[in-house]
Amino acid sequence: xxxxxxxxxxAGCSPATVSKAFNNYSSVKDSTYKKxxxxxxxxxxxxxTNARALTTKKTWLIxxxxxxxxxxxxxxxxFGEILQNFKMRAAEYGYDVxxxxxxxxxxxxxxxxxxxxxGLEGVLLAMDRNHADEIQNVLSSDVKCVSxxxxxxxxxxxxxxxxxxxxxxxxxxxxxxxxKIAHVACPLTSVAGRERYGAYLEFLNSKGIEFNxxxxxxxxxxxxxxxxxxxxxxxxxxxxxxxxxxxxxxDDIAFSAISTIQSQGFRVPEDISVVGFDNLKVSGYMxxxxxxxHQDRAxxxxxxxDKLIQLIENKPMEDALEVRIPxxxxxxxxxxxx
Amino acid sequence: xxxxxxxxxxAGCSPATVSKAFNNYSSVKDSTYKKxxxxxxxxxxxxxTNARALTTKKTWLIxxxxxxxxxxxxxxxxFGEILQNFKMRAAEYGYDVxxxxxxxxxxxxxxxxxxxxxGLEGVLLAMDRNHADEIQNVLSSDVKCVSxxxxxxxxxxxxxxxxxxxxxxxxxxxxxxxxKIAHVACPLTSVAGRERYGAYLEFLNSKGIEFNxxxxxxxxxxxxxxxxxxxxxxxxxxxxxxxxxxxxxxDDIAFSAISTIQSQGFRVPEDISVVGFDNLKVSGYMxxxxxxxHQDRAxxxxxxxDKLIQLIENKPMEDALEVRIPxxxxxxxxxxxx
DNA sequence: CTGAAAGCGCTAACAC
DNA sequence: GTGTTAGCGCTTTCAG
Lengths: 338, 338
Description:
2 copies of one chain form a homodimer.
Chain A: H1 4-11, H2 15-22, H3 30-43, H4 49-56, E1 61-66, H5 77-92, E2 96-99, E3 103-104, E4 107-108, H6 111-118, E5 122-126, H7 132-139, E6 144-147, E7 156-160, H8 162-175, E8 181-185, H9 191-207, E9 216-218, H10 225-237, E10 245-248, H11 251-263, E11 273-278, E12 291-294, H12 297-312, E13 322-325, E14 328-330
Parallel strand pairs in A: 1-2, 1-5, 5-6, 6-7, 7-13, 8-9, 8-10, 10-11, 11-12
Antiparallel strand pairs in A: 3-4, 12-14
Helix pairs in contact in A: 1-2, 1-3, 5-12, 8-9, 10-11
The first copy, chain A, binds a DNA duplex through helix 2 and helix 4.
């Protein structure tokens, strides 16, 4: 391994000067700076973070804690895309991103212990409420946190504007003449579940549409098959008075619901219109192509990185504690006029 | 920050002994071990990796280099799931996983420089051929590599058995009586593209089916919309002699192809059967539910971790340089008898 | 503008 | 069994 000492020797200066050169101290004379860089280049020197971090206490390391449930976390394109954008933005600032595990060597450890072990300066959180206890101590520690999934008291959050998205979807259906609009909700333990359902209620109210409890299905989990189950249940419980449209809380269940609805002999959108939420990549390539609410995952990831780094570097924070990213309705072919 | 010295003082021993205790040296007396652990616990001490790595040269850090193209890399559920399983397995061994970026501080850097900068002991590669040059120098450096995407000379690889999967799909179609089987291929610059196409050819040959060049479409990129384009082209160029089945090289394009085929007035599977490859989570929830080849991403990720860690730790390696994970045909509703 | 020296937290001989 | 000591590669006063 080539060190600062090797460079110093060949460049005819002291290690201290080499260090200064690499840290862009203005005091280093131009000519010696050049010399040092030349030598470094020729030996293909790379500074050693571990040594650097040991003295400076700055690791340039950010952790991510994502749900490890199958079908969630990075396994799901929604979070994958957020993470992708997060880490790309973090890299621009010079931060590296690592997965926070629950192991230190062969021992189990808490997330917080792992953060301290690696000297993480901050973490990105994407854990649902079910795992809230595992991250409780990191939330109340001094590692900076930003969440892109759940909302925790006093914790910075970047998520899509679920209320806005819901309104866009429902207003559209309303415009097409729909008044009997069902809603298949995410588990109401989740922010997405509560907010989308809340906005649905608010919408009905604002339009003077009477709430029909038969038009509501709350799913038990986040999983595509929940859509089929919900569709069956819905069709069953309002056979005599079918909704003309369904607002599905997210695309995965919209796909399976459509499939089930069709297999029961109904046409989408002719008999029942369907709107989703998420705008996954595949949503545009189903039949019918899914009309859905787009979540701007690129912005969510980038903004989360910006925020976290502002926190880490104690920069003035202009954003609110809770940042909401606007949504957009993507109109395709799964809805039609009544 | 609480250090080994703080513990030593309170436990009434030397820092060296504390270090030994934490590294499970058998020479440490039981009673002093207990004492040390007690004190550590009460101060909630966590060892500092940076300091540790500085002396031991062991960072317990593994990097991942994934394509950053949209729709690829961790953004795609295929790689997301592989990465998820990889990092979980690595964690069990005590290794942490970080994303290798092309930045060091505010400067651009090569992947290799970044590996050295962080002292990465190995890397997981998931880059397509288009970016091969960016990782060339890490492949020929001394950092251990395992690839889960492309195949490089002399480099360990873990990927699904594409030939096997293709054969399973085609045998199934054959069994259903199909003889006119089209193939929409991935770009032939990719391993997936070449191998699946190669196996298709091999299959035709083994069954004595004459090769019909009109039944072949090579797509230009990995992207869902390629499926629609291919379907249009295919239908156009063999209007007079349509295939009864299509083997789509991966699920994303199978979805869009089906959608396009349907919108052109044909029924799937009644008029045209379709098989995919990947078995993405959503594949089971389309209409028709997609018959496809399952890639065992959990095993791929785990095996890649096992391999990489064996390499890192210079453990004897029983596996071949190139490990193939068996595939499985998942029969659903997108194929029928001719 | 440059260098000497101390020290970050830990490990690894080696002595006791 | 335990402690002393040197040193990993770098940064940072402080002198010059």
